[in-house]
Design brief:
Strand content: 25-35%
Shape: globular
Number of strands: 42
Number of helices: 5
Helix content: under 10%
Oligomer: single chain
Structural class: mainly beta
Strand order of the largest sheet: 5-4-3-2-35-36
Distance between the termini: 40 Å
Length: 558
């Protein structure tokens, strides 16, 4: 389908109705393509191989030994950030002395310096003794209930579609589990989801099991017994969200006392996974289908509930907000992810076209048909295509950066073939209306820096009178490891709380299945308006694997 046909399919009425109450502001230049983006502290984000300073909107270099391009990672239980995997050096010019990163393990932090200098604010690597068991490009890493990383899949080499001869259809842990040193766990599920199983979408469920989505299939996996417990119904209507079809998936907020998990999986493509690169086009229209499923026995029996985005999306990503809503941004209306490889990519030098420049809000608690809107969502002048990224910040806004769908750097001054979507270094912040208009917000003036599971803590807060009559929420968040439109480990747990005067008493999650032990952020939300965030360590802060902490709870999660 070509661009003229696409225009007739997009319901642009949503654009005309939009009230621009959110806003984009351009601030700063990243200096690199930060396809990996992790909020580290109120003042810092990790971009590999740079530190971004939120206060000055500038970047400073970090020294690394192995090529971190297309890696994954996450925080572990002691607050250290771990990046795993990457790619060979010779595929990206200009990496200097960096070595093959596919087995790389890079440790950063905890970095407690506001300026990003001092102990913990450099990357530690020892490739000879500290490395993965196998080579991994495009893997996924998740922090699990013992505070370690569960590492899923990947490939030996750079590829658009994964293949049986190059795929890493297996799992491993960092640090390695006792008795599993030097070994991996084979995965029948990853075998069955070839060739579209790169960057598998994974979420830790309140049962401690892991949901993995790849291609158009999903499985609930029991880490403790190395068992596939249940294959879910296929994503309806032939829609696929795995690379290179590249839809998005997100675990919705978990609420006490039942912590029932619901997952959305949206966008992507309904093209078959047997399609050849020659048959694929940058103008193939992406899917607008958006489905959700609740991972209880009753929810799985009911199957996927189908909704639709106001426009098709590929390579979009989700930012979970403290209110529990999901902001969807970046990507394109047509095409596929990856460097130029599809049949007609030569003319544009990209695999996708028709950038999606307006966000979508997903209201997670509203009924079917009322959840998805573009009203109030602004349009950015900057296309954010392949290799773009966005992360939530301590200030309560969204940092948006990068885009580079080419295997080299293109700038306005260095684009001899006039290819589409040159390399993008401009950084934007997407501000909610109350930041844009400097409206009153809740304020956290004192809070604990660490809280054991199921323990109570007190926070000193100020709730503006104009917001006091609305609902009060306390949000515990992990912003995730952001790369290639996938926010691995992104999570929000609403905390039980009571407010008396300016003293807010909160109760930590009951155990590490609900929130895996490690660093988190707390935001106070009053009548839909959130505070700035404060950091907190959940659990005992020790190195993984941690013993079971907290108390068991009665849940219905599979």
């Amino acid at each position: 389908m070509r661009s003229t046909q696409l225009l007739s399919l997009l319901p642009f009425v949503h654009l005309a109705m939009a009230q621009k109450s959110w806003s984009f502001v351009q601030q700063g230049n990243s200096g690199i393509i930060p396809l990996e983006l992790i909020t580290i502290s109120p003042t810092l984000a990790l971009m590999y191989d740079r530190l971004w300073h939120f206060d000055t909107n500038t970047a400073t270099p970090l020294e690394i030994k192995t090529n971190s391009f297309c890696a994954s990672g996450g925080f572990i239980s002691n607050g250290t950030h771990v990046a795993v995997g990457g790619q060979p050096v010779d595929d990206i010019p200009g990496w200097g002395n960096a070595t093959d990163g596919r087995m790389g393990v890079r440790l950063f932090g905890p970095c407690t310096s506001a300026s990003g200098t001092g102990p913990g604010c450099t990357v530690f690597e020892d490739p000879d003794t500290l490395h993965l068991v196998v080579t991994r490009w495009y893997p996924t890493a998740l922090r699990i209930n013992d505070g370690s990383l569960f590492i899923i899949g990947g490939s030996d080499i750079l590829t658009t579609f994964n293949g049986a001869d190059i795929a890493q259809n297996n799992y491993e842990f960092f640090p390695p589990r006792k008795g599993e040193e030097g070994t991996v766990r084979p995965s029948k599920f990853l075998e069955d989801t070839l060739p579209a199983n790169l960057f598998p979408r994974g979420m830790v469920l309140p049962s401690g099991n892991v949901l993995i989505i790849a291609n158009n299939q999903s499985v609930i996996y029991d880490i403790e017994t190395d068992t596939e417990l249940l294959r879910l119904p296929e994503i309806p209507n032939g829609v696929r969200i795995g690379v290179p079809f590249d839809g998005f998936a997100q675990l919705l907020p978990l609420s006490p006392p039942l912590y029932e998990p619901t997952v959305i999986a949206c966008g992507g493509s309904n093209k078959p996974d047997t399609i050849t690169l020659e048959e694929m086009s940058v103008n193939d229209v992406a899917s607008a289908q958006c489905q959700r499923i609740t991972l209880t026995a009753a929810g799985v029996a009911a199957g996927w509930e189908i909704d639709h985005l106001p426009e098709p999306r590929v390579m979009a990503e989700t930012v979970i907000l403290p209110s529990g809503d999901i902001y969807i941004l970046n990507g394109a209306h047509t095409g596929y992810s990856g460097y130029p490889s599809v049949g007609d990519s030569g003319a544009t030098g990209t695999n996708a076209a028709h950038p999606a420049t307006q966000g979508i809000m997903y209201k997670s608690t509203l009924p079917l048909g009322q959840r998805i809107t573009q009203a109030g969502m602004p349009t950015s002048p900057i296309p954010r295509m392949y290799h773009s990224a966005a992360t939530f910040t301590a200030k309560g806004n969204i940092m948006v950066a990068a885009s580079n769908p080419h295997p080299f750097v293109l700038t306005a001054d260095n684009n001899p073939n006039n290819l589409s979507f040159p390399s993008e270094y401009r950084v934007e912040y997407l501000n909610p209306d109350f930041i844009t208009h400097n409206s009153p917000r809740p304020v956290i003036s004192k809070s604990p820096t660490q809280l054991a599971f199921n323990a109570k803590g007190t926070i000193t807060v100020t709730i503006p009178p104009s917001l006091a009559a609305g609902e009060l929420q306390v949000s515990l968040m992990d912003m995730g490891f952001i790369t290639h439109g996938w926010h691995a480990g992104s999570r929000l747990v609403f905390l039980e709380h009571t407010l008396k005067g300016n003293t807010l008493t909160i109760t930590a999650p009951p155990n590490g299945n609900i929130y895996p032990p490690g660093p988190a952020w707390i935001y106070i939300v009053a009548d839909g308006v959130w505070s700035e965030g404060v950091q907190i360590m959940i659990g005992d802060g020790g190195s993984p694997p941690r013993p079971a902490q907290g108390v068991p709870v009665s849940i219905s999660s599979l």
